[in-house]
Description:
By secondary structure, the protein is α+β, with helices and mostly antiparallel strands. It has 2 domains: 1-30; 37-229, 3-Layer(aba) Sandwich (Glutaredoxin), CATH 3.40.30.10. It is built from 7 helices and 8 strands, in the order H-E-E-E-H-E-H-E-H-E-E-H-E-H-H. It has helices at 2-29, 77-91, 108-119, 134-142, 177-181, 197-220, 230-236; strands spanning 37-40, 50-51, 63-70, 97-104, 127-132, 155-162, 168-170, 192-193. Strands 1, 2, 3, 4, 5, 6, 7 and 8 form an 8-stranded mixed sheet that branches. Strand 4 (97-104), helix 3 (108-119) and strand 5 form a beta-alpha-beta unit. The chain starts with a helix and ends with a helix.
Amino acid sequence: MTNSFYRKWIILGILFLLPVIFLLFLYPSTHNYNTLDIVNEDIKEIDFLNFIDESKTTLEENITILNFLGNKPLENITGAMNLKELVYDKFKGFKKFQIISISHTNSENSLKNVKKELIKSDELKYWFFATASDEKIKEIYNSLRSSSQLDSSNYTSQVFIVDKQRNQRGRIDDRNDDEIENNINLFGLYSYNSVIVSEIKKKMNDDIRILFTEYRQKRKGNFNSNIRRISNLDAND
């Protein structure tokens, strides 16, 4: 009788303690996630852009997705539609999140039509549309790190993540485990192809979530990570 009584309480104690121990093991790992690398700094501020519909915004103090739609934005709407469905709809509720689509000054009417197409399914409170001259568009684009150039119409399917301090975020090392194991040379991910759905789903959305986690940890005072900067790596080459 006595042995049965003690055995009962020992089992209950183990059942109680196991979840607690498990949570204690998990807790330290919540602060050891990999941050999103800074791949470039001092991105050109966009306060000189001509925003349509009398809206206005800046890169500073916002988490921004930059999108270049070129001189014929309506013809390049596929990437914007993907961003609407796969990115904007997921993150529009997050504080200080925004998308900015940039087109040429002479393309304002076409850009408005892009907005009309996108707004059919939802409001676009945190999506801004703006125009600028060839020179100003190139100023912004050239301040970004990219493995490709704007085409002759100022269009690219590549989109960029810019943080609240106007740092461009991405991956210094975008190799998968097999590529690392096979000693493939290091290559980075500085932008995301908006017409490739798998890249948006599997890489871009994950990276945006990581960036929001970083800022959330900073607000809580739990952020204690040294963010990798590509400039520091370049200096050590």
